[in-house]
Amino acid sequence: MTLRLPFATALSAIVLTLAPAAQAADYPSRPITLIVPFAAGGPTDVVARTLGAELSKELGQPIVVENRTGAGGTLAAAYVANAEPDGYTYLIHHNGMATATALYSNLKFDPLKSYAYVGEVVDVPMTLLGRKNLPPANMAEFIEYARANADKINLANAGPGAVSQLCGSLLQQALGVKFTTIPYQGTGPAMAALLGEQVDVLCDQTTQTIPHIAAGNVKFYGVTTQERISKLPDAPTLEEQGLKGFEVKVWHGIYAPAGTPPAAVSRFNSALKTALKSPAFTGKMADLGAEIVSEDRQTPESLQKWVKSEIDKWTPVLKAEGMNVN
Ligand code: MLT
């Protein structure tokens, strides 16, 4: 007995020491879930599913995309923050990761503490759209119409924390108007409402809007980036049409729960870097106006720094606007 106990202890110490290495070599050995904080069919979902297909080839396991909607993306962010940190649950999220702290006072996650960062993915411009039969034909007419009819205009968005909400709020602030806001679980359903002319205005990412702009299904008033974008070279920015300093650019990053084994994060990150170069991903993103981030931004360190800098950028703006929702 006295001889067997130390042997058992030594054996379990060896097993424990070997366990992480064995896990790293086997990882991933089963499907991985990629959580999308907004509705299926919308712009975040498009990026997630296109990327998921490439990641799956790289990792040799299915990437199961799961849409967990609600509260402007904060429910999904909380879900992943509190998920098992075993390398099998990841989150793709955008600017909402950095704006949520200013908007909500009861978050169940901390963007700076709850995650193991994986890396950034794409930057996406936004576009300002009206329903097809909204009277204004261009931005100059839209500005005039919005000021004269603000109380009759319905603005669709995906709730506080969504970039459609951020863009729509900045737009109202720039025009000095207040529209009626209609929140959806994502801009996928918000776009369906715009196409059905149940709402008047939507600010949304090119990853969803370009096909509708090309088909002439909507009124298109301009892009929200500081510079014109190569995919829509004739489309003026909102800034050049009178909204001085107006800029909203969407960035997407990937996160795992804090405590996820570094070997798993590193393996996922190397698959991400390969996926971001794949012709299927780069081709589709180019068609939809999205820009793959440079290699130095495809890292955990870069995403961590970026989230912090975006929190510092947006918190004073949102607090000054009194945009806290609870
Ligand atoms: C979505 O994927 O539905 C959008 O990213 C929501 C948003 O406007 O943030």
From TrEMBL:
Lineage, opening ranks: Bacteria, Pseudomonadati, Pseudomonadota, Betaproteobacteria, Burkholderiales
Organism of this sequence: Bordetella genomosp. 7
Endpoints of the signal sequence: 1-24
Similarity comment: family membership: Belongs to the UPF0065 (bug) family.
UniProt xrefs under InterPro entries: BUG, Bug_dom1
Pfam families in UniProt: TctC
Keywords assigned: Signal
Name the record gives this protein: ABC transporter substrate-binding protein
